[in-house]
Design a protein that fits this description.
Blueprint lengths: L3 E6 L2 E6 L6 H9 L9 H20 L6 E3 L2 E3 L1 H16 L18 H18 L13 H5 L5 H37 L4 E6 L2 E7 H22 L5 E2 L16 H13 L4 E2 L3 H6 L2 H27 L10 E2 L17 H24 L10 H27 L3 E2 L1 H9 L9 H4 L1 H14 L3 H7 L5 H7 L2 H4 L7
Parallel strand pairs: 7-8
Antiparallel strand pairs: 1-2, 3-4, 5-6, 9-10
Helix pairs in contact: 1-4, 2-3, 2-4, 2-6, 2-8, 3-4, 6-7, 6-12, 7-10, 10-11, 10-12, 11-12
């Protein structure tokens, strides 16, 4: 026995691994693009397979599958359609993911990934019909049957949209968990008054709970932006085939495909109002990517604040204490680092880079097609995958279990000369500046300096400088 079989395509014969479900066109891509060693994300496999599943059902309903002679057997069109649907269902379920082997950096438009899908489903359908993958009489053809009424040029843009929507709920769920974790911290820390900081310099007081409420609200706003940006992805251009005209597709194919895909996926989907735009432009993908990038910059900012607020613990701010999850140094015993916040930074920098690639690729389309679609797909799916994993870990191992250091917060606040800002309505800005300078120079609390300078009586100063009251806003009297 040999460990390969011979497959045929329009360029001729080619050896393919004997147990592979893919065929000659996929094998050529494997040989042509040994670039990164990466494989397609499950979202890309699922999305492309669900399109094939829907197409087989729609084309069968339209009576487009004919009978096929396979040796001495006649395989009916209905048998072929049912076998293709069954094989596609298996791919949708993730059963054959190891047979999707084309590098993300591949031929333009994604023809290699499309053919990988076509060949795997065709060969599996042949097996379902009782034919071996090396049988020369196998009836199901990857192009004629699995790719019927389709082109790479309309299936890949549709797969990009479906693949993002497939994980949208998962992304929103982990972000809501982060939001809740931050809201819980905000409630727990609401009584702790601390020194605010602007320009990384001392500023008027805030409550630690207020600080964390801002983080929680930022995540909520990002969820809104991502959800809104995803709306454009729901418009599907399937049925445009090669250039948007719908050549080789039934007149009812587009509308039936959108309806069938909605039924199969339980996703809210709609028909494109212009198939040419849906194939030429990737603005919807770019908009969605930019919403994730906006989230990434906010998560970076929050992670940076965590690192600052937990710095020290003896020579930094140390107003919060992050959960201890691992030793921080191979040489300094007892050192603990803000590793989850550092991870979040690195993950979000990567996501921002993914977004740049999506943007550059989206503008690189020409006329009726954007040939950069494989890397748009890969980067969008990677952005979602990395964000989901990073946020989940950050929430569970850092936000939940985070503690406040109230004593340190009070210490910094007591020495903050900018508390004098609250006295502006009483003693004036110029006197306030003098008080702040003297407080800094002599290392004395603001209240002592104000009384020594004869600007206020101590009782009045203590009332005006009630730290908690200052965090509620208004004019102090």
């Amino acid at each position: 026995m040999t460990d390969y079989r011979v497959e045929h395509d329009s360029l001729g014969d080619l050896q393919v691994p004997a147990d592979a479900l893919w065929g000659a066109q996929t094998q050529r891509a494997v040989l042509n693009f040994p670039v990164s060693g990466m494989r397609p994300y499950p979202a890309f496999i699922w999305a492309q397979a669900i399109i094939k599943r829907a197409a087989a059902e729609v084309n069968h309903e339209l009576g487009l599958f004919g009978d096929k002679q396979a040796g001495d057997k006649t395989i009916t069109g209905e048998e072929i359609a049912r076998a293709v649907m069954a094989a596609a269902d298996e791919v949708v379920a993730g059963k054959w993911n190891e047979h999707f082997v084309v590098d993300p950096f591949q031929a333009g438009a994604g023809t290699s990934h499309n053919m990988n899908t076509n060949e795997v489903i065709a060969n599996r359908a042949n097996q379902i019909l009782g034919f071996a993958v090396d049988d020369k009489n196998k009836p199901v053809h990857p192009n004629d049957h699995v790719n019927m009424a389709q082109s790479t040029n309309d299936t890949i843009p549709t797969a990009i949209r479906l693949g993002c929507l497939w994980r949208l709920d998962e992304m929103v769920t982990v972000l809501k968990e982060l939001q809740k974790g931050l809201e819980d911290n905000a409630k727990s820390f609401d009584s702790i008054v601390k020194s605010g900081r602007t320009h990384l310099q001392d500023a008027v007081p805030v409550r630690l709970g207020q600080e964390f409420s801002g983080y929680a609200k930022a995540i909520e706003r990002n969820i809104e932006k991502i959800t809104e940006a995803a709306k454009g992805l729901r418009r599907l251009g399937i049925g445009g085939t090669a250039a948007g005209t719908g050549l080789n597709a039934h007149d009812e194919y587009h509308s039936r495909m959108v309806k069938t895909l909605q039924q199969l996926t339980d996703l809210e989907l709609q028909e494109s109002d212009n198939l040419f735009e849906s194939m030429q432009s990737h603005q919807d993908a770019t908009f969605f990517s930019s919403a994730i990038r906006t989230l990434a910059q906010d998560l970076t900012r929050i992670a940076n604040d965590f690192r600052l607020l937990s710095s020290g613990p003896t020579t930094g701010l140390a107003e919060i204490q992050l959960p201890t999850v691992q030793p921080g140094s191979s040489i300094m015993p007892g050192k603990v680092n803000p590793v989850l916040a550092e991870m979040m930074n690195m993950a979000m920098f990567h996501v921002m880079g993914n977004d740049l690639t999506v943007m550059l690729s989206a503008q690189a389309g020409q006329l009726e097609l954007n040939v950069m679609m494989p890397i748009i797909a890969h980067n969008l799916f990677e952005m979602m995958h990395v964000t989901i994993g990073a946020v989940k870990a950050f929430t569970q191992k850092c936000v939940i279990g985070l503690d406040a250091n109230e004593a340190k917060a009070k210490q910094w606040l007591a020495n903050n000369p900018i508390l004098v800002t609250a006295l502006n309505p009483i003693i004036g800005y110029e006197n306030g500046a003098k008080v702040a300078k003297q407080s800094l120079a002599e290392g004395k609390p603001i209240i002592d300096v104000v009384v020594e300078m004869g600007l206020m009586e101590r009782d009045a100063a203590e009332k005006a400088l009630d730290a908690y009251k200052l965090t509620e806003g208004g004019i102090q009297k």
